[in-house]
Amino acid sequence: MFKNLLSFWKGKDFLSQVLEEFRDMLEDSKCMFEAVCSRLLDSAEEPDLKKKIYDVDKKVNRLQKGIRKRIVEHLSLQPTVEVSACLLLMSVVKDAERLGDYCKNLYEVTELMEGPIDKAVFSQYFSDIDKDILNLFERTKEAFIEADKNKAESSWDYEHRIAIQCDRIVRQVAKSNLSINEAVCFVLIARHFKRIVAHLANIATSVILPISDLDYFDEKTDE
């Protein structure tokens, strides 16, 4: 459905502007994630990182509001045209906005840490999850903008694998000898990582799922 609508809309001002701003939301969220991971894992001292993260999050929020406003205006002028695609867009821009929120939450974990993360210990639990999530950001953007079925389907594998790993991390930390501060921070990181990949997968799978199944891609994989 989405690929047909994308083809139908191609070249139209409304779609072009909405997709461009949606792409910006994904790019901005990816940059936030990358910057926060650098602070978390490498203790990178980027000047005014907190201000940057919060400013970008506000920009993502503004983009979401702008897209939703344009969709409502579009439907008010043409109430029977492209309703399904408009509903789909309303759903995925909310997912993109949540990405910004969870990246901001990840930054807040850096403020809870009593000292730099021990990278060897972190790696024992998380391996290369942060790199996998960065790959999923790119795959999600390409899957949605290009209506790429294969990349959309591959996001299921990414999300399923990372979600299982994040749940395992929480169980392992609960039985570990980590300090209270390390344990709390590791659990928060695992939970935020899991929510980020869930929202990315929601966006990617919107290309191949009917509107009624949006946000329930994980149930589809169990059928």
Beta strands, count: 0
Q: Quick one: overall form?
A: globular
Query: What is the assembly state of the chains in this entry?
Result: single chain
How many helices? The count is 9
> In percent terms, what proportion of residues is strand?
under 5%
* Class by SSE composition: mainly alpha
What's the end-to-end separation, in Å?
21 Å
Unreliable stretches: none
The averaged pLDDT comes out at 84
Largest β sheet strand count, sense and barrel closure: none
Question: How would you summarize the topology of this molecule?
Answer:
Layout: H1 2-9, H2 13-42, H3 49-77, H4 83-112, H5 119-126, H6 129-145, H7 149-174, H8 180-205, H9 217-221
Helix pairs in contact: 2-3, 2-4, 2-6, 3-4, 4-8, 6-7, 6-8, 7-8
What does this structure look like?
By secondary structure, the protein is mainly alpha-helical. The chain is 80% helix and 0% strand. It has nine helices and no strands. The longest helix has 30 residues. 34% of the residues are buried. The model has no long low-confidence stretch (mean pLDDT 84).
Main features:
single chain; 223 residues
